[in-house]
Amino acid sequence: MRGAVAIVGVGQAGCGDASGFTEMEILAQASQKAVADAGLTMQQIDGLATASSSSAMWGLSVVEYLGLRPRFMDSTMIGGSSFVAHILPSMLALASGQCDAVLVCYGSTQRTATINRAAIKKARRQLEPQPYEDPYEPLPPLTSYALAASRHMHQYGTTRTQLAHVAVAARKWAQLNPEAYARGPLSIEDVLNSRMVSDPLTVRDSCLVSDGAAAYVMVRADRARDLPQPPVYVLGSGTAMWNKQISSMPDLTVTAAVDSGQRAYRMAGLGPQQMDVLELYDAFTINTLLFLEDLGFCPKGEAGRYVESGAIAPGGSLPVNTNGGGLSCVHPGMYGAFITVEAVRQLRGACGERQVAGAATALVHGNGGTLSSQSTTILGTADTL
């Protein structure tokens, strides 16, 4: 399957504040941009992968709204990693001839939608009980990620200052990205002195609450060569889940990214040392540390010191979250589609001031739930085939 499928079109819409639009409307805008970018028409899309936290049968609504009649559908919902996890089944559907062009899309107006979030949380607790946690009335998902951060600090000596370096590096990348929502100055002191939301995580250790939609189009490699954009090939992909509740993790400092990463590396025939760009799901600053370790970019327990050295910021040795990440660019509830779009843009050489020179490989890593589902994809230019 290595290199058998390529991403040939990408699009985003409504990122930051999409006042006046519904989540379906901005999803359609992003989808239209991605399909047009691929040099295709919506009538040529015969595969669809999408998911939403607001609707159990969201895929059917998207089919109806976009006027599609797909031969392949994947509406698997495993949280924010879904739109990275959708890549492997889409590859299989394309390779087997079930369909010829797959649209992966997501949209959310989490920031501006007028809905009763308290009622939704209450209903979700009743429909999806978490018996080991609910009796203690945690603040989801903050409490879960704070537990992981606390454990990492206790076990490895990680400091709040090191966590703050993740947020500041993301902001420096965002300042190079005109599409990023948060581009103002941010210092280590700003992060440390900002409002504590779940100890040890402050509001600046936490992702944005934004609107946004993102989409990308996949076709078989032989077809990709005839389309207008430089193809970005899928070299490897893997997904792994070990738990749902944070309290069911065997080790709060080790995620299923250990498995998903190894599966992606094996398919790609590459390792961490061959990755030019990393796009990691940074819902909270602790995520970036955990994924750097679990995906093999530094030893377990060393990520705090690694980011403190400036390695992941612009000008550092390992470009991470080059769009500004979920911490500073965009985070409308689920983020996996946006990191995929950014990785494709980097490999096309289309990122302007934030472009990583000579980037030929990119690792995209999605996270879902509370460190619950992990999905890793490795992308490459034609030179990597």
Automatic annotation (TrEMBL):
Limits of the Thiolase C-terminal domain: 238-381
Molecular function, one GO term: acetyl-CoA C-acyltransferase activity
Highest taxon, organism lineage: Bacteria
InterPro entries xrefs: Thiolase, Thiolase-like, Thiolase_C_2
NCBIfam families xref list: PRK06158.1
PANTHER family: ACETYL-COA C-ACETYLTRANSFERASE, NON-SPECIFIC LIPID-TRANSFER PROTEIN-LIKE 2
Stated name of the protein: Thiolase
